[in-house]
């Protein structure tokens, strides 16, 4: 088990290394080169020359790459030009991170809490009306662009029926103590229940919209996986032992069926970030996704650089966690 | 009767080669028989599958409309016949009236005509993005799957890194690289996200083929590697690729809409496209939500059409699901 | 019928009341848009306490479906089961699902063909053995664990305590089958059904497993239904043999009688398909020609007729009736060896 974790961490370092190289190449290939990327609109010939010298752009490529790595390891990625002009790019990421973590966690929770039971039920009633209906529902879910779903939710629940807030993370003027930056959690920690409730109301619509993608995927994988496992010989063996239906389902069917689902949930984390770009900008929810959307549109390369690198690191970390969870469920990996 | 078969004649090397090919041909037919019956039974199932029929009908209507739309659209998409009725303060989006079935957009252009013609750009983006993605994926996947070894490792590492990156984020990143967004940056950005999927898929089924009996038989009979790849492995590996391509058309259309929504799509409004129209409609969410509903509805229906078709194809071609 | 009763060696020495009595069992599969398929077409046989009964035939003859129907393990939809399977005075086919669950694993146990796929890959061997006892004997996991170790030892697994913690992928094929047997025997069932238990194993392991089964059956007095396509297995193990073809029993007899004096041409064909070391040089194997795909429907013919070297006119015109009783008999218009 320990060797397994160590091996995975080494693999992760390799991925991070390759990514840093890709980002370096990406920065070099930007229109106008890295100088324009960092200076943005504040570009003047004098500044340009100064920065070029400072960045050592006259140096050979490998020296430049080492310098890039050095700066990156110190957290120096340049200054935001558009998202929060003048702010350090890494700081933008750190400020925005809790909001997106909060949103993604709720979305993922919704997707799992609905997707797995529904997928299981559909598989148990394979071919029935329930199954067909659930499958068609999930196919429609795939076809509806996530930002349009966000748009619909916003239009009906916030604009038309006025049930939930239209945008943002918190009602303006609300005085709440900040602890972690995750407002719902902060409210609970400081016992400011109204602040917590207010933040939660702001979370619901974006979280539901964001959950639509992982929900559809988790539902379909669960259904397919349960269908496969129900056909397995060992389920027949369990039945032949006369085990109660509950034990057969819980111990023999669900546990095996969860293996591919766990992997899928891990893979969804990347998709959540992409979905956050769209949902957060519909709801003007100030998280990483919203920052990314602005950075993409306005070409704020310093911010983009940080967000993509950090996003990738988080993604790889989550996958490490998923692999460990997988090994805990599947002895074939643990005991190899 | 060919005198080669005469018992008195000693077989020459050339004959033996012929025998090999004959043996191979029969080996091929043995493999093809179940293959054909699989295809035929897949078709039998599809013809009766309501999911497939609905998907195919949507797709057919969409493609036909996309092709003929410039000739049947009642108004020129660049003309703004209702510009006089646009009041930026009170009535930014003129409603329906005789001759303008769905009213106009915020610049007084006929909405119905723009929706119709928009199908064409949407089709172009979807098809070209998928074709480009396929081309890249087939090249990489076939290379990795056919050669194996070191090439396989290197190619698949690259593919894995690309795959580990969320498709939409990759598309956003690539589209943001372009100095000037255009239809082609959109297509290239989406195509790039499709490449790793196709590459992996093709490599997977090529690898399965490589160790399958009929390829082993061909190899043991001394057929040249290139012939094995092109005549035996590629055609048999195409089934899953076709299924994926159908599904990719849906993804491409949705991704194009997402890119347009973020302002990374084709800014040229003389070429209306549903995603672009949807992006432009965001501003009028409270005054005129229908401006967003129509193009979004079109995207959903078409994407659903491709998805339904792809899913039923997948299920029909999967021998495991034939129960 | 005098011809039929000629097999003198009656099996199952202390023959008392049958433990399991299957009568006119029929299983019909109905798939969407396809014709009905009679997988089992009126099978009857008895199993007496302590007796080993073989069900023999090619794949597709209905032998596995028969066993699954008796166990109540056929997939839920798309099939119809009729007839009766009286076990200990109760008809298993009409028992409620929960009553059937109570019998399975305790009164009737089953061993399957492929030991790897029949074991749950993510649960330890120990747990898979103890869960049977937890279910049927009300033991706690702790109480059941030493018993599980004893069981593993009894089926010949070395170092049983350590093996309890292992997972199926860590065991060899033979050990896995032994573990499956241990699970089946955990609650001392009165009837054990073994569905091709050695087919997936190496030849040497096959012999070991058969020897183990034989020993266990003798030791515990468990009745055994042995399902196999291999007459060699039958010869070494079974007291009574039922030869199945196309969903019907075509011949039945005691082991010795059947091997010495087979009456049905299909049985003869099966026997001739076994390569023999003592065959004279130049003697050819004479396999049964054709395949089950050539079968005729039993309704107006003998299903085996197209493949039968002994076929006469009525074989393709009428259904052959059973000649004999519950112990010996056959179903043929033109049986072999009739002149003897």
From TrEMBL, chain A:
GO BP terms in the entry: transmembrane transport
InterPro entries assigned: BPD_transp_1_N, MetI-like, MetI-like_sf
Membrane topology: Multi-pass membrane protein
Record GO cellular component, one term: plasma membrane
SUPFAM superfamilies: MetI-like (SSF161098)
UniProt keyword annotations, A-Z: Cell membrane, Membrane, Transmembrane, Transmembrane helix, Transport
Pfam families named in the record: BPD_transp_1, BPD_transp_1_N
Subcellular location: Cell membrane
Top-level taxon in the UniProt lineage: Bacteria
Main location as per UniProt: membrane
Positions of transmembrane segments: 9-27, 103-123, 135-157, 199-219, 259-283, 303-329
All residue ranges annotated as the ABC transmembrane type-1 domain in the record: 97-322
Family assignment from sequence similarity: Belongs to the binding-protein-dependent transport system permease family.
Name this protein carries in UniProt: ABC transporter permease
Source organism of the structure: Nocardioides glacieisoli
UniProtKB/TrEMBL annotation, chain B:
Keyword line: Cell membrane, Membrane, Transmembrane, Transmembrane helix, Transport
Annotated GO CC locations: plasma membrane
Domain spans labelled ABC transmembrane type-1: 119-310
Gene Ontology biological process terms, A to Z: transmembrane transport
Membrane topology listed for this record: Multi-pass membrane protein
Cited Pfam families: BPD_transp_1 (PF00528), OppC_N (PF12911)
Coiled-coil intervals, chain numbering: none
Subcellular location: Cell membrane
Chain segments annotated as transmembrane: 50-72, 123-151, 158-178, 184-202, 241-264, 292-313
Similarity field: Belongs to the binding-protein-dependent transport system permease family.
Protein name: ABC transporter permease
Organism for this UniProt entry: Nocardioides glacieisoli
Automatic annotation (TrEMBL), chain C:
Domain of life (superkingdom): Bacteria
BP GO terms, sorted: peptide transport
Domain ABC transporter: 22-271
GO cellular component term of the entry, any: plasma membrane
InterPro entries documented for this protein: AAA+_ATPase, ABC_Ni/Peptide_Import, ABC_transporter-like_ATP-bd, ABC_transporter-like_CS, Oligopep_ABC_C, P-loop_NTPase
Membrane topology label: Peripheral membrane protein
Secretion signal span: none
Pfam families named in the record: ABC_tran, oligo_HPY
Subcellular location: Cell membrane
Keyword set, alphabetical order: ATP-binding, Cell membrane, Membrane, Nucleotide-binding, Transport
Primary site of residence: membrane
UniProt cross-references to Gene3D superfamilies, sorted A to Z: P-loop containing nucleotide triphosphate hydrolases
Record flagged with keyword ATP-binding: yes
Entry GO MF terms: ATP binding; ATP hydrolysis activity
Family: Belongs to the ABC transporter superfamily.
NCBIfam families assigned to the protein according to its UniProt record, in alphabetical order: oligo_HPY
Family annotation (PANTHER family): DIPEPTIDE TRANSPORT ATP-BINDING PROTEIN DPPD (PTHR43297:SF2), OLIGOPEPTIDE TRANSPORT ATP-BINDING PROTEIN APPD (PTHR43297)
Protein name per Swiss-Prot or TrEMBL: ABC transporter ATP-binding protein
Natural source organism: Nocardioides glacieisoli
């Amino acid at each position: 088990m320990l060797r397994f974790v160590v091996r995975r961490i080494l693999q992760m370092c390799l991925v991070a290394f390759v990514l840093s190289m890709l980002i370096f190449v990406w920065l070099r290939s930007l229109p106008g080169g890295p100088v324009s990327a960092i200076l943005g609109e504040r570009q003047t010939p004098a500044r340009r020359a100064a920065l070029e010298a400072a960045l050592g752009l006259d140096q050979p490529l490998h020296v430049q790459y080492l310098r890039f790595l050095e700066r990156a390891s110190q957290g120096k990625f340049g200054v935001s030009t558009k998202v929060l002009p003048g702010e350090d790019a890494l700081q933008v990421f750190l400020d925005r991170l809790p909001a997106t973590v909060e949103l993604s966690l709720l979305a993922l929770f919704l997707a799992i809490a609905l997707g797995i039971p529904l997928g299981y039920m559909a598989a148990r009633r394979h071919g029935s009306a329930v199954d067909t209906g659930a499958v068609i529902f999930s196919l429609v879910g795939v076809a509806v662009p996530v930002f349009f779903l966000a748009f619909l939710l916003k239009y009906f629940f916030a604009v038309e029926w006025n049930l939930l807030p239209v945008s943002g993370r918190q009602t303006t003027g609300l005085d709440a103590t900040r602890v972690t930056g995750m407002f719902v959690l902060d409210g609970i920690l400081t016992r400011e229940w109204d602040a917590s409730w207010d933040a939660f109301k702001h979370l619901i619509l974006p979280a539901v919209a964001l959950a639509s993608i992982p929900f559809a995927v988790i539902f379909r994988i669960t259904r397919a996986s349960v269908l496969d496992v129900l056909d397995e010989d060992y389920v027949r063996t369990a039945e032949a032992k006369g085990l109660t239906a509950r034990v057969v389902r819980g111990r023999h069917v669900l546990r095996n069926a969860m293996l591919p689902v766990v992997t899928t949930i891990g893979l969804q984390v990347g998709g959540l970030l992409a979905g956050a770009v769209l949902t957060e900008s519909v709801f003007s929810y100030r998280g990483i996704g919203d920052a990314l959307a602005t950075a993409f549109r306005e070409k704020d390369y310093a911010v983009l650089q940080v967000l993509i690198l950090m996003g990738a690191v988080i993604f790889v970390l989550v996958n490490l966690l998923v692999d460990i969870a997988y090994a805990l469920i599947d002895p074939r990996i643990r005991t190899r | 009767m060919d005198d080669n078969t005469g018992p008195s004649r000693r077989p020459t090397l050339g004959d033996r080669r012929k025998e090999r090919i004959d043996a191979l041909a029969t080996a091929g037919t043995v493999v093809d028989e179940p293959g054909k019956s699989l295809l035929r039974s897949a078709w039998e199932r599809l013809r009766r599958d309501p999911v497939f029929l609905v998907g195919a009908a949507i797709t057919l209507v969409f493609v036909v409309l996309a092709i003929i739309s410039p000739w049947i659209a009642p108004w020129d998409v660049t003309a703004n016949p209702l510009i006089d009725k646009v009041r930026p303060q009170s009535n930014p989006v003129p409603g329906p009236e005789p001759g303008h079935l769905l009213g106009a957009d915020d610049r007084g252009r006929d909405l119905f005509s723009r929706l119709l013609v928009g199908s064409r750009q949407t089709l172009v983006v979807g098809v070209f993005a998928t074709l480009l993605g396929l081309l890249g994926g087939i090249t990489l996947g076939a290379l990795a799957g056919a050669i194996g070894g070191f090439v396989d490792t290197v190619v698949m590492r690259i593919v894995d890194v690309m795959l580990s990156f969320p498709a939409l984020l990759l598309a956003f990143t690539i589209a943001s690289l372009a100095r000037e967004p255009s239809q082609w940056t959109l297509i290239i950005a989406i195509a790039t996200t499709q490449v790793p999927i196709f590459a992996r898929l093709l490599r997977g089924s090529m690898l399965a083929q490589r160790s399958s009996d009929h390829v082993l038989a061909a190899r043991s009979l001394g057929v040249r590697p290139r012939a094995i790849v092109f005549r035996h492995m590629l055609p048999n590996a195409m089934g899953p690729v076709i299924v994926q391509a159908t599904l990719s058309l849906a993804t491409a259309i949705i991704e194009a809409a997402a890119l347009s929504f973020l302002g990374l799509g084709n800014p040229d409004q003389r070429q209306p496209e549903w995603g672009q129209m949807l992006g432009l409609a965001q501003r009028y969410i409270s005054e005129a939500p229908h401006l967003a509903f129509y193009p979004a509805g079109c995207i959903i229906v078409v994407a659903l059409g491709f998805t339904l078709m792809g899913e039923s194809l997948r299920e029909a071609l999967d021998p495991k699901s034939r129960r | 019928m005098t011809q039929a009763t000629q097999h003198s060696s009656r099996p199952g020495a202390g023959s008392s009341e049958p433990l399991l009595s299957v009568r006119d069992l029929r299983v019909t599969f109905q798939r969407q848009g396809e014709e009905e398929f009679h997988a089992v077409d009126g099978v009857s046989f008895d199993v007496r306490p302590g007796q080993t009964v073989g069900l023999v035939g090619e794949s597709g003859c209905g032998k596995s479906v028969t066993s699954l129907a008796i166990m109540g393990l056929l997939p839920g939809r798309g099939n119809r089961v009729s007839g009766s399977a009286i076990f200990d005075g109760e008809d298993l086919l009409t028992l409620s699902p929960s009553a059937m669950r109570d019998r399975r694993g305790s009164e009737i146990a089953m061993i399957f063909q492929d030991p790897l796929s029949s074991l749950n890959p993510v649960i330890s061997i120990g747990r898979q053995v103890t869960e049977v006892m937890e279910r049927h004997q009300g033991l706690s996991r702790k109480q059941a664990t030493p018993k599980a170790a004893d069981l593993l030892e009894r089926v010949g697994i070395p170092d049983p305590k350590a093996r309890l913690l292992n997972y199926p992928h860590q065991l060899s094929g033979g050990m896995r089958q032994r573990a499956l047997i241990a699970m089946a025997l955990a609650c001392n069932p009165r009837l054990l059904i073994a569905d091709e238990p050695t087919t997936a194993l190496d030849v040497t392991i096959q012999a070991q497993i058969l020897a183990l089964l034989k020993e266990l059956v003798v030791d515990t007095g468990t009745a055994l239904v042995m399902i196999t396509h291999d007459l060699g297995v039958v010869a070494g193990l079974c007291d009574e043999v039922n030869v199945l073809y196309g969903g019907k029993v075509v011949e039945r007899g005691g082991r010795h009688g059947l091997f010495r004096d087979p009456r049905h041409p299909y049985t003869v064909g099966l026997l001739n398909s076994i390569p023999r070391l003592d065959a004279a040089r130049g003697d050819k194997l004479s396999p049964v020609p054709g395949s089950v795909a050539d079968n005729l429907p039993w309704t107006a013919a003998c299903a085996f007729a197209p493949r039968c070297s002994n076929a006469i006119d009525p074989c393709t015109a009428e259904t052959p009736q059973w000649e004999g009783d519950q112990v010996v008999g056959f179903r043929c218009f033109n049986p072999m060896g009739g002149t003897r």
